[in-house]
Specification:
- The protein is α+β, with helices and mostly antiparallel strands.
- It is built from 9 helices and 11 strands.
- The chain has 2 domains: about 5-175, Formiminotransferase-cyclodeaminase, Chain B, domain 1; about 185-270, Alpha-Beta Plaits.
- Strands 1, 2, 3, 4, 5, 6 and 7 form a 7-stranded mixed β-sheet that branches. The protein has a 4-stranded antiparallel β-sheet with strand order 9-10-8-11.
- Strand 3 (about 30-40) and strand 4 (about 45-50) form a beta hairpin.
- The longest helix is centred in the middle third of the chain and has 19 residues, at about 100-120.
- The chain is globular, with a radius of gyration of 19 Å.
């Protein structure tokens, strides 16, 4: 069976009735499974994980986008996470029986249909980027909704689909594809002072000298008592394992008189990433997924 993995993000993490309405289309279309969703009131953003057969998944993502556009007004939206639109991102990745190229084509179809149905402009990123700069979400989001709305008419910042302007209430949607889903990972430190944590986030972030496939910011998390965290998107967790990221942050924190008090995943992670962390922290270099009994159950019994 052909399956794809999508991790759409929309710009609402506080109003439960709005979140429920936006998620509803993902629960009602055969061939699509909503894995989980992660509303964050600090970010005012919800991360969604969904898998499905390509065509049903496309329709579910489009209907979800319609609800986000209908229910979120970017002129009023505030939160600590960078964003440019109500339905901020729609990234699509291969899962089983599908390829990156198939995901790239599906992302093109989604982007075109978002504008045709809803009149909301689209930026393409990742494998669908029209320029090298636009492969990066940071570049597209520079200035966020409030800044982009002022410069979207310029050649270097205009949307890839739609007029050279943002939708007044819905902003724009970033549609992308890639070889694997990003991993959202937060490492929390024993301080509430963001100024102490910002240099640590910069040390991890690719453009400022850290890991090329990591983007990170410093922010406070209410659920951790207002402690500051290095909040990351890891775009290639096979190349940059969680253990390496965790160790670098721990080292940078200790050099500043801080310590790590915890970490958390937002969403799912490939099993191999957890096995790799076990190899590292338990000092079990030969540990493999075949030693996890559930993997044999998932593989079926003859």
């Amino acid at each position: 069976m052909k399956l794809m993995h999508a991790v759409p993000n929309f710009s609402e993490g506080r109003r439960q009735e709005v979140i429920n309405a936006i998620l509803a289309p993902l629960k009602s279309i055969p061939g699509v499974k909503l894995i989980s969703h992660f509303p964050d009131p600090d970010f005012n953003r919800t991360v969604v994980e969904v898998i499905g057969q390509p065509e049903p998944l496309k329709e579910a993502l489009l209907r979800m986008t319609g609800e986000s556009i209908r229910l979120i007004d970017m002129r009023e939206q505030t939160g600590s996470h960078p964003r440019i639109g109500a339905q901020d991102t729609i990234p699509v990745f291969p899962l089983t029986g599908t390829t990156v190229d198939e995901c790239r084509r599906l992302a093109e179809e989604i982007g075109a249909e978002v504008f045709d149905r809803y009149g909301v402009p689209v930026y393409f990123s990742g494998e669908n980027a029209r320029t090298p700069e636009r492969r990066s979400l940071d570049y597209i989001r520079r200035g966020q909704y409030e800044g982009l709305v002022k410069v979207a008419h310029t050649p270097e910042r205009r949307p890839d689909i739609g007029p050279p302007a943002l939708h007044p209430t819905a902003g724009a949607v970033i549609v992308s594809s890639g070889k694997q889903g990003l991993v959202a990972y937060n490492v929390i430190l024993d301080t509430t002072d963001l100024d102490l944590v910002k240099p640590i986030a910069a040390a991890v972030r690719g453009p400022s000298g850290g890991f090329g496939s990591v983007r990170s910011i410093a922010l406070r998390l209410d659920k951790w008592g207002g402690r500051a965290a290095v909040s990351m998107n890891i775009f290639d967790v096979a190349a940059v394992p969680l253990a390496r990221v965790f160790n670098l942050i721990s080292s940078e924190a200790e050099s500043r008189g801080l310590r790590v008090v915890g970490s958390e995943l937002v969403g799912t992670v490939p099993l191999e990433s957890i096995v790799d962390a076990a190899r590292h922290f338990l000092k079990m270099p030969a540990f493999s997924t075949s030693q996890i009994i559930e993997t044999h159950v998932l593989g079926g019994v003859d």
